[in-house]
Amino acid sequence: MTRTVDTTTVENPVMSTSELAHLGEGSVAYLRKMSSDDLRGRFPGLAQITPGLELWALFAANGQPILLADERDRALAGAMENDLTTVATH
């Protein structure tokens, strides 16, 4: 679904870079299915992990890693425990 905003009626339609960087901070997280092969760069300090595993990663709105889970439901439970609204990425 695409939403269009008519900026002619919005008083202050421009968001600063800083405001955009902090949008959703502390309240929104995104859920992403990832291969264990792709996790090394996203999760610093990650211990040795079996190659080729499909895992669910939860990231803060700013991209900071929060948790890894082997099942989607477990990742969602972690988000709920932290009062985070989740969105999925493709």
From TrEMBL:
What's one Pfam family the UniProt record gives for this protein?
Answer: DUF1150
Query: InterPro entries under this entry?
Result: DUF1150 (IPR009531)
Name of the featured protein = DUF1150 family protein
